[in-house]
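In this supplementary section we document a worked example of the pipeline. Step one takes a protein sequence of length 710 as its only input; no multiple sequence alignment statistics are reported here. Step two produces a three-dimensional model, which step three serialises into structure tokens for compact storage. The input and output of this example are shown verbatim.
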Amino acid sequence: MDILKKVLEIMRGVYAKCKEWHHKLQAWWQRTLGPVWHRFQITRWIIVVILALTLIISVLGTFEAKTTDVSNLKARLKSTTEIYDVSGNKAGSIAGEKGTYVSYKQISPTVVDAVISTEDRNFYHEYGFSITGIARAGLMIIWHKLTFTSTNALSGGSTLTQQLVKNAFLTQNQTLTRKIRELFLSVQVENEYSKHDILSMYLNNAYFGEGIWGVQDAAQKYFGVDAIDLNQQQGAMLAGMLQSPNGFDPLQNPQAAKNRRDQVLLNMVANKKLTQNIADQWAATPIGATNHNMTSSSYEYPYYFDAVIDEAISKYHLKEQDVMQNGYKIYTSMNQTDQTNLQNDYQNSYLNPIGPDSQAASIVLDAKTGGVRAVVGGRGEHQFRGFNRATQMKRQPGSTIKPIVDYAPALGRGYAYDSMLPNHSMTFGTNNYAPNNAGDVTTEDIPMYVALERSYNIPAVWLSEKLGINTSYQAGLKAGLPLTKDDKNYAMTIGGLSKGVSPMQMAQAYTSFANEGKMSDAHFITKIVDASGRTVVDTVKIKQTRLWSAKVANEMTSMMLGVYTNGTGIPADPSGYTVAGKTGTTEFATSEDNPNAATDSWAIAYTPDIVNVTWTGNDNGEIIPASLASTAAPLMKTSLEQIIPNTDQNAFTVKSIRERNSAESWNSSSTNSSISDNINGVAGGLRSAGQTIVKGAQAVWSGVRGAIGF
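The serialised model returned by step three reads:
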């Protein structure tokens, strides 16, 4: 009783103090702000401002809801982005943040009960948003502002519909602006879909940890069953994960997952979806979750699919989230046979003479269209949208640049395939640049086609000096090579660049030789259609740029046909097929112990149908053999022997220089032989005629002798 009296006395004292402060505050208000407040009718202005803000928010929110297309939401969530090959056949899909989509009827009712009991008990009675939830969220904002615990935090108050809208249309940033957009879009979704549709879309789009999206894949991952077969404790565990998928991951945090599951079971009891007795029985059991392997073969061509995503984002300005989530149909120039063969080649250790820790990259283009038929961007384990050496790498091209910046420009300015070029040690320019041939070989003057076949450096630099370094530089730029002002020097003419090139850039440039002087723009995507059937990117037209005349391109092909039969490309010459092209090596000049060392090895080969580029080396620049046979040749030779039979196999319209020279030599020999035969024939005729005359004279003489008596 004494304690109660003391409490009452304290309360009376507090009340008296509050009353005293109230009177003082009221008196202060009447003396100072009161008259001003009433004079300017501030209360009315506050009401007007609130109504105006409400109107503005309503207008903007309604505009947001009406201009956001929610009608194809189900199709977007249900569909994965699919990729098709050049023939229109499905090559695979990009699941993104999606799992296996199942309908409402394919989801266990126990999961539905657990989710609604825990996440949104008034789901079936509200219209996309909760007044009490919004009020609670508003109080949380005020609390965070007053306590300075957060500057923009907004938590709680979200219905299942709002959570679906947030995941499907909005960012995860917890701001007031996002919350307003979320509210109006939720109303729009409620107008468009039934409660069962909304619930199934939510559960199919939810994240369940371990990289698993959707209730069906979560059921398979943790319990090895379909979503329809989940029991009450399993459904409760999955429902509990929605709040914090990683925090309540049963594989990583089993005790936390069990505690959360038990809480969900109690929520189901409170929501009259489960009896207390059954809940206690389930709570006494372990969670029973184990790791079931989830394998997917839909991403069968990883480097190609990575490049498709990159091109959709960079070239056609689609957002990554949209590409991954919105169920597009993306049509490409892929040839699945070529892609499969190339990937298998990269798994063949016999085609990698450098060693298992080395790297490589290959790309195959359709010479006419520029469409990428196949691409592999590296050896070893693939990382999703990781480094693709075929499209993103920048390495020194070595001698493969010479046809572009040296020989083709020279042919276009009066030089001929058999123009004699110096091949002895010399210096160039004001800085006395002194290139060396491989092995420091020098010779007498040689024809241009021989210099190209044997990949001599000195004749190439000499040509560039005669043409003017700017001519070579501009030729490289026009061919799409990423040259900079720092590259305007003689080192560039034999492949010494400030940054480097990618295999894709070199393949694109070489289409100009395979395509009578016209360079075809390299690309992966040919068409994009969204989930509703609307064409986002129409059929891509072939884009070509003329680099050389047809005469120059054909003459270059005549010279480069000799590279794989009589030059540096012999180790990669495909059996039974004719190719033109060029090889290139970046020599490691400071390697005294191994003068035949290099850092990059390239092989480029083409036919009238395709261009194939292969690079081999090490990411860290460690040395490799300089010999093509010990680097890129096995891979290039094998891939060519697989790819060429899979094309139209159009024949070159020109012959190699050596074939032409041989034919001319044979014609000359044949002509000389014919002349000799004619001379011999005339001589023989004369001899025969002479003999006939002699015999006739003898007969006449015998007759005369008989007549006169001799």
